[in-house]
Amino acid sequence: MKSLTSKTLAVGLLAVSWNCASQAAVWGTETAISTLSPCPSFCGGPGSVFDFTIDGGEFVGSATSQLNNADGNGQARASLSGPNALPILGAEGFSGPDSRASSAAVGMTGYTYTGAQATAMSLNIILDGERGGTNVPGDAYVTSDVAVILGDVNDFVTHFATFIFEVVPGNPGLSILGTSSLSLDLNVGPQTKTDSIDFTLDPGDEFFVWAGLNAGGIRNGFGDAFDTLSLSFSDPVGIVPNVPVPAAVWLFGSVLALIGVRRSVTSQTAPLPASGR
Predict the structure, then answer these.
(1) CB 143 within 8 A of CB 196
(2) Model-level pTM greater than 0.90?
């Protein structure tokens, strides 16, 4: 009986691992920071110095990156937060006098609309931050891109143009419900930019929200949007995120259940106590 219980436990764990590996909908977050020097009139070339760090990926609910060296510094964060698991992104990059510092954050989540009738919806977008340190517009930047895609996306994509111009057109089951692109103004201090994407959902529709944030600068330029790019639905009723319970939780719960089964079987097969004890 002990051998049989061990085999049952092993089979159960294998089944759990398989279920966790075969996710039905793609979601995730990713952050990345890079620095590059020298940057006289362009960046890089012979003898250039490049540094890079990255975190997160497909089926990762939060990611953070930091980088600090002689050529600049930056940090980025991305998470799928709140009851609707919408991306919350932050990024900043501060370059040195002869270098470039770049920071990026990406998040995407899939949803199913469970309402009983068609509904008009808005995805509200707020970008906070500033850019400066230079009078050259291209040497300091904070930009955000957001897209709402109808359909079941099967790829975790971290580049906006790739998503919009390659992934969506290459999949007949996908269509763009709306996009938004924001950019902060140069040398005006802390500021807020807002936008919204309006779309309509029918009962049973699957859709994705993709969001990306880029910040950085060249030759003392900087972009700071660490607090933050945030999103919200105008009416979240009936919108269910396709972000499952983390695999570790499922695995832990299944182990406990199987242990309980083993204990139950062991107690049923243990010798009965002698009379009078």
Answers:
(1) no
(2) no
The candidate with the shortest Cα–Cα distance to 211, out of 228, 223, 193, is 228
How far apart are the C-alpha atoms of 32 and 45, rounded to whole Å?
22
Of 74, 61, 4, which Cα lies nearest the Cα of 28? 61
- Residue-wise pLDDT for 3-52, tens only, equals 444 433 333 333 333 333 334 478 999 999 999 999 998 898 889 999 99
Output the CA–CA distances (angstroms, integers) from residue 58 to 26, 155, 245, in the order listed. 7, 9, 15
pLDDT tens-place string over residues 18-32: 333 334 478 999 999
DSSP string, the chain: -HHHHHHHHHHHHHHHHHHHHS-SS--EEEEEEEEEE--SSSS--TT-EEEEEEEEEET-SEEEEEEEETTEEEEEEEEEETTTTEEEEEEEEEE-TT-EEEEEEEEEEEEEE--SS-EEEEEEEEEEEEEES-S-GGGEEEEEEEEEEES--------HHHIIIIITTT-TT-EEEEEEEEEPPBSS-SEEEEEEEEEEE-TT-EEEEEEEEEEEEETT-EEEEEEEEEEEES--TTEEE--PPPHHHHHHHHHHHHHHHHHHHHHHHSPPPPTT-
